[in-house]
Hints:
This protein is an alpha+beta fold. It is 23% helix and 29% strand. It has a single domain (4-147), classed as Gcn5-related N-acetyltransferase (GNAT) (Aminopeptidase). The radius of gyration is 14 Å and the shape is globular.
Amino acid sequence: MKSLIDLHVAPAAPGDLPAILALLSAEKLVTDGVEEHMGSFVVAKDDGRVVACSGAEAYQFAALIRSVVVSPDYRLIGLGRRMVREILDRLSSRGLREFYLLTTDAEAWFKKRGFKPIDRDEIHPQLLASKELQGACGDDAVCMRLVMT
């Protein structure tokens, strides 16, 4: 089994897009809007191969965390936590303090990381243009928020 030490985490490069889309598609996650927001994505690589990613749609006052995925061979080593922490740190360094996400199967996992379930009408208005919120992510998805102080 690999360890976190073996992996290189860095901002996604344009050439990483096909690997990111393949990871997301394999897990049946939304790919709409990924290319437009590649500037807010980070990837973990093992020997140059993308094995995990996380991204966000960052706006002036809030961000929608999206596309958090870890390749099955790299799960259970803390890589998912690292990917979420990496994207939150990068966005908070830009002054963002409100983070939202939609999930259909990871509510408990994100609760452990401080996110709290909210009603969709509580989503910051800047995020309403997101393709995820305009239907790419189903109505059964739980909306969650994390506010950093």
